[in-house]
Design a protein that fits this description.
Number of domains of chain B: 2
Strand order of the largest sheet of chain A: 6-9-10-3-11-12
Strand content of chain B: under 5%
Strand order of the largest sheet of chain B: 1-2
InterPro entries (chain B): ABC_transp_permease
CATH class of the largest domain in chain A: Alpha Beta
Oligomer: heterodimer
Shape of chain A: globular
Helix content of chain A: 25-40%
Number of helices of chain B: 17
Biased composition (Basic and acidic residues) (chain B): 424-437
Number of domains of chain A: 3
Low-confidence stretches of chain B: 19-23, 423-453
Distance between the termini of chain B: 23 Å
CATH topology of the largest domain in chain B: ABC transporter involved in vitamin B12 uptake, BtuC
Number of helices of chain A: 18
Structural class of chain A: alpha/beta
Organism (chain B): Halorubrum aidingense JCM 13560
Transmembrane segments (chain B): 29-48, 122-144, 156-175, 181-203, 215-234, 268-287
Largest sheet of chain B: 2 strands, antiparallel
Membrane topology (chain B): Multi-pass membrane protein
Number of strands of chain A: 24
């Protein structure tokens, strides 16, 4: 029998970016398939190809053994493919049945009037068939997010979808709603529907899917049966090993504590607690790494440290001073450099040229100002030197940031932040999207900064990167450090376990003398000196 | 010989269109002129059409060949509109200089009006409108650049004007009644206007920053509050004795901004325009060459990057609205000290026109001057059309609206430019692969291929 969906060698190129590189994917009818991968791995692009939002550059889409070419989602829907986006597309003040039939209303009076009774009945019938507990007359704005998601699913089913694509369906749900969603999956597949869902969370994929395909950097790393794979293996597949790196150990013992985080609790934008009591210390001449699968609270932890987010509890101290009332600008002035996670939203003003971007964050710094005046000549020569040192291509400081490729944008930000002469460098994913040569250069510079006695806090989802660069390595899962380990002695398997949320027995790993609160004990620091 | 000419013309048109397709400053000006031309063309037919419907004893214009008569002469309307705004430097020679037998149409010839001086009343009106709109246009522009929609420049202008009138009248006895005293009073008056408008603008700024109130709503509402509170205050407290309208006492003659060269009846003073130009250049320098201006611009264009770079978003909002209000308030001061000599209830809609001026200028201070001048010309010219022709004022209003409508849609002309001319740089730039980019880029290339084929 033909698979319900067969993607055959899909390649999708955007100017300067290959989002999908020769991806094959086959999904059996009546199964649940998880598409797993980090942010930017190309999952959503691949599904947008299947849903007709993008046309593939190469490759073909085969539905039920029949090659198809979709010009628009309408074609995909006609072929029985429905997609539920991460952000619901519902008209909130309208009733559920109105939302479901919107655009495909059953009509009476020769098309002049919506046949409300027929529509309501159709929705009620669909809802009953799949065991959805949905009242067709409720208004969308009055029902929970979980029910709204079902309305989206009903919309797709009403249009005759046999294959349902869900983009990060659990991102907006409470744990109970997630369980209910899994039940819905079961009900749907029992009746012959096929489900593909996108996720970057391991536990979801192993829990709900029959098969899992892992994407990394736009490539299919492998499709595995859920029963044959462990979470650790999946974690490794997701983060991968791209650059083999020589570990360069710190030559000098770490000095005074620069950054001291204690019992930090933070919420995300929706008010859900995603950092639950994290403590860490970063010293002069030390790289403290944080590993873990994306979305486990790293972003919020880092934003709380750099001053972009107000923590709900706990303290952040810099050089022994509490930063509670210290503004973001003051933190920059005191010597905190920060390579942000989202370079296009935060790190660069996309419509400005590199000269203007060279002063982002130091526009009030004496280095570039005479009183109130900003000296663009000095900004230009600074931009020039960053471009030169960090090999930003093309070397044109008058070109707008948006005209550079992602990797070159990143190099410019890294250069600007490193050249700030900071005491602490907070680097999140410093080499994401950067080519191998530049990656090595950035790594070298990070190591140099450490030798100069700077403190470095490094967050990366690339295991080999954090392992090779860090002097101490914390693994974050679900808002907590599951362990702080010595990167020289820890094994991949152990890291995989920690990333999957398990803790290690004390005797299985050589902890860096970590106390219960995640701080190194005095002896730990000494050990490292001798190491 | 005749073969090469179409090619050369075509190349020139293509190069012109290619510039339309770009984004920077020069093509904005080109686009503005193309828009002006197209609006005149469309307006031409509107005047003809309404001239056909209207009733009149003798036709103002007869269409060649067909012999159809029209009540309004479209050539005359547009000639008077632009010529009248300058006070009539040109006049039309009687047709017939060229022998009608040689040409199907007898072309009119322009002659320079002997004795014309730029310092006339009609041109003064144009300049006065331009000057006032420079201030309100700058006011709206600075808020826009910070990502704020200040619809409240009108209210800020009303408050600034009232404060200027009251302060100058109250302080006048303290200063000598001569040039020196006048200059001091004018300085104090403008300062009072800036403070009044600034504070009035700071209110919606603070409400936005600290109470999350949408500035569009608050500024609109504060317009009503300003207008009505000012009215009641003047009516009940500050009304000049014996005045038939609701107005404050007159500002003493020596404390008004008077003209140097223009006739005193024209209500325009060169010094006021000078203050406007200084504000304009000052705002440009502030935005482009100071740290605070940089904060403000980044906040407007990419708030997350501003936050990352340490900009205090709340403070910047209040600052931008205060500056915006202060510029509107100075507009009010100039209106009092240059045009009216007192605060009167019938304040023109300068603040609202400022919104259009700012958008026409692309929210760039340097663009505010030509945009304000266009408004000034249309205002001054429309009055002259009313005086010199039988065309009803409503029709002139339609023509004004049409011109602004076309000038305000540069994207339309850019689109035409892109469709007709292959557009190399855009297609390769593409950016980060958002769906729209890729599609748009290829479409432009495809169309280009057709055009050159």
């Amino acid at each position: 029998m033909n698979p319900a969906v067969h993607l055959d060698g899909i390649t999708k190129r955007f100017p300067g970016v290959v989002a999908n590189d020769d991806v094959d994917l086959a999904v059996e009818r009546g199964s649940v398939h998880a598409l797993l991968g980090e942010n930017g791995a190309g999952k959503t692009t691949l599904m947008n190809v299947l849903y007709g939002l993008y046309r593939p550059t190469e490759g073909r889409v085969v539905i039920d053994g029949e090659p198809r070419s979709f010009d628009s989602p309408r074609d995909a829907i006609n072929a029985g493919v429905g997609m539920i986006h991460q952000h619901f597309m519902l008209v909130e003040p309208m009733r559920i049945w109105e939302n479901v039939v919107l655009g495909n209303e059953p009509t009476e009076w020769y098309g002049l009037r919506v046949d409300e009774d027929a529509a309501r009945e159709a929705v009620r019938e669909l809802s009953a068939r799949y065991g959805f507990d949905v009242d067709p007359d409720a208004r969308v704005e009055d029902v929970s997010v979980g029910v709204q998601q079902r309305v989206e699913i009903l919309k797709a089913l009403y249009r005759g979808a046999d294959i349902l694509i869900l983009d990060e369906p659990t991102a907006v749900l409470t744990p109970q709603e997630v369980e209910d969603l899994y039940d819905v999956f079961e009900e749907l597949t029992d009746q012959g529907k096929t489900i593909i869902f996108i996720s970057h969370k391991l536990s979801e994929a192993t829990h709900a899917a029959d098969e899992i395909t892992v994407l990394r950097n736009g490539k299919n790393v492998g499709t595995v049966d859920t029963d044959d794979v462990t979470s650790e293996q999946l974690a490794e597949m997701m983060v991968g090993r791209e650059v083999l790196m020589e570990r360069s150990a710190a030559t000098e013992p770490p000095g005074d504590v620069v950054l001291d985080v204690e019992g930090l609790v933070a919420e995300d934008d929706r008010g859900v607690e995603v950092v639950s009591g994290v403590s860490a210390q970063v010293r002069e001449g030390e790289v403290f790494g944080i590993a873990g699968v994306d979305g486990n609270g790293q972003s919020q932890l880092i934003e709380s440290i750099t001053g972009l987010r107000t923590p709900t509890a706990g303290t952040v101290s810099f050089h022994g001073e509490d930063l509670d009332d210290v503004s973001r600008r003051e933190r920059i002035d005191r010597g905190m450099a920060y390579i942000p996670e989202d370079r296009q939203a935060r790190g660069l003003v996309m419509e400005y040229d590199l000269t203007q971007n060279a002063v982002l964050g130091s526009q009030h710094d004496d280095e570039f100002t005479d009183g109130p005046r900003l000296d663009w000549d000095r900004a230009a020569s600074h931009a020039e030197s960053v471009i030169k040192q960090y090999d930003v291509r093309p070397p044109d400081r008058d070109a707008t940031a948006e005209s550079f490729s992602g990797g070159n944008q990143q190099k410019f930000i890294v250069g600007r932040e490193f050249e700030r002469d900071p005491d602490l460098v907070v680097a999140t994913h410093p080499t994401r999207g950067v080519d191998i040569g530049s990656t090595e250069f950035i790594h070298d510079r990070l190591t140099e900064l450490r030798s100069e006695g700077k403190a470095v806090l490094l967050v990366s989802s690339k295991l080999d990167e954090v392992q090779a660069l860090s002097d101490r390595l914390a693994v974050m899962h679900d808002g907590e450090f599951t362990g702080v380990v010595d990167p020289t002695t820890v094994t991949e398997e152990q890291l995989g376990l920690l990333m999957a949320g398990e803790t290690l027995d004390d005797d299985t790993v050589d902890h860096v003398g970590v106390g219960d609160d995640g701080r190194p004990t005095e002896t730990a620091a000494d050990e490292e000196v001798s190491a | 010989m005749s073969r090469s000419r179409p090619g050369a013309v075509r190349a020139r048109i293509e190069s012109l269109l290619r510039r339309f397709a770009g984004i920077s400053g020069i093509d904005r000006v080109l686009i503005a002129f193309a828009a002006l031309g197209l609006s005149v063309l469309v307006g031409f037919f509107i005047v003809l059409g309404s001239g056909r419907v209207a009733e009149c004893s003798t036709a103002a214009w007869t269409m060649p060949i067909t012999g159809l008569g029209f009540c309004y002469d479209p050539f005359e309307v547009f000639f008077v509109l632009f010529n009248g705004a300058l006070g009539g430097p040109f006049y039309v020679w009687e047709p017939g200089i060229l022998n009608p037998e040689w040409l199907p149409i007898t072309l009119p010839w322009l002659g320079f009006m002997p004795g014309w001086s730029p310092f006339n009343n009609a041109f003064a009106l144009t300049m006065s409108e331009t000057t006032l709109l420079v201030f309100t246009g700058l006011s709206v522009a600075v808020a826009f650049r910070a990502g704020l929609f200040n619809i409240g420049t009108q209210g800020q202008l009303v408050v600034g004007a009232l404060l200027t009138a009251l302060v100058v009248v109250a302080l006048a006895p303290l200063f000598p009644a001569n040039r020196v005293g006048g200059v001091i009073l004018i300085a104090i008056g403008v300062l009072a206007g800036a403070v009044g408008g600034g504070l009035w603008g700071a209110i919606p700024g603070a409400l936005k920053a600290y109470a999350d109130a949408n500035e569009v709503i608050t500024t609109i509402m504060l317009n009503f509050i300003a207008a009505n509170v000012a009215y009641v205050l003047v009516l009940e407290v500050f009304r000049a004795e014996g005045s038939s309208v609701v107005a404050t006492a007159d500002v003493p003659e020596y404390a008004q901004i008077g003209p140097w060269l223009f006739p005193p009846t024209g209500d325009f003073a060169e010094a006021a325009l000078l203050i406007g130009l200084v504000s304009l250049v000052g705002l440009y320098l502030f935005l482009e060459h100071t740290s605070l201006g940089y904060d403000l611009r980044v906040s407007g264009i990419q708030p997350l990057a501003a936050e990352y770079s340490g900009v205090n978003a709340k403070l910047t909002t209040v600052r931008a609205m205060t500056l915006s209000g202060a510029l509107g308030g100075i507009g009010g001061s100039i209106w009092v000290l240059m045009s009216e000599g007192r605060w009167v209830e019938s304040i023109p809609d300068l603040g609202f026109d400022g919104i259009t001026v700012s958008i026409l200028a692309g929210n760039n201070p340097l663009g505010v001057l030509p945009a304000a001048a266009l408004f000034g010309v249309l205002k001054g010219g429309a009055l002259q059309v009313g005086f010199q022709t039988d065309v009803p004022p409503e029709l002139v209003g339609v023509l004004r609206g049409l011109i602004i409508l076309f000038v305000a849609m540069p994207e339309f002309f850019r689109l035409i430019g892109k469709r007709l001319v292959p557009d190399e740089p855009e297609a390769t730039r593409g950016g980060d692969g958002k769906d729209g980019d890729g599609v748009g880029g290829t479409a432009a290339v495809d169309d280009g291929g057709e055009a050159s084929a």
